[in-house]
Description:
Elements: H1 2-6, H2 10-16, H3 19-36, H4 42-51, H5 58-73
Amino acid sequence: MVKWFDGLDQVVKIILLIPIWGWLISALYRIFKYVEGENKNNITLVIGILCLLPFLCIGFVFSIIDLVMVITTNKISLLAD
């Protein structure tokens, strides 16, 4: 999923990270980044799991942060190492 998302056009990434459903994309990106990555950063996995819990609103916040990151740098990099 990480390579798939990273290979998308910037406009498609922005549409996928709209906060209505962006919390799910942010969560899955971080979980798959942890699973597929060589660098096993446990914070990435924890944030990914917490983003899946809608009542915490963490996913909503991270989807907005990821949206800003994609607009400015064209990649998700905050706590997704």
